[in-house]
């Protein structure tokens, strides 16, 4: 996948989090997982951070992480205005944990050897 495709995937992941975060509670309820909200936050933000780090490999991981954490904070605040939704500091912390997990996963994957060991 080329740079355009990777960046499109990152944009779609970011947009999906925004849309799902701000939809009314009764609209989101049927598509919730059985994992619980906190694990959903961790998983969604970890996947998004990993995709963004891959898409913007030439950018600072710190800036990517900071941008996603700030995005999560804005979305948590905006949930106050979405019917059937509420914002919480705990949700923000789980989202932030997901961002850090996604960036850490990228760093680990980036430093793995590319092929089988030479013998």
Report on the structure:
By secondary structure, the protein is mostly helical. It is built from 5 helices and no strands. The chain has one domain. The radius of gyration is 16 Å and the shape is elongated.
The helical percent reads: 55-70%
Strand pairing plus helix content: what structural class? Answer: mainly alpha
- Give the mean pLDDT: 91
Please tally the β strands and state the result.
Answer: 0
Which overall shape is indicated by the principal axes computed on the Cα atoms? Answer: elongated
Q: What is the count of helical runs?
A: 5
Q: Topology as H/E string?
A: HHHHH
Strand content bin = under 5%
Rg (CA only): 16 Å
Beginning-to-end CA distance, first to last residue = 31 Å
Total domain modules: 1
Poorly predicted ranges:
none
Note the main sheet: none
């Amino acid at each position: 996948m080329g740079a355009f495709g990777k960046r499109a995937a990152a944009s779609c992941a970011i947009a999906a989090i925004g849309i799902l975060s701000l939809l009314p509670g009764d609209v989101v309820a049927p598509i919730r997982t059985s994992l619980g909200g906190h694990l959903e936050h961790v998983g969604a933000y970890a996947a998004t951070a990993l995709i963004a780090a891959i898409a913007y490999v030439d950018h600072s991981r710190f800036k990517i992480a900071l941008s996603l954490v700030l995005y999560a904070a804005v979305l948590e605040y905006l949930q106050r205005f979405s019917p059937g939704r509420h914002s919480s500091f705990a949700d923000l912390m789980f989202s932030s944990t997901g961002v850090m997990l996604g960036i850490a996963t990228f760093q680990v994957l980036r430093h793995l050897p590319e092929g089988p060991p030479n013998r």
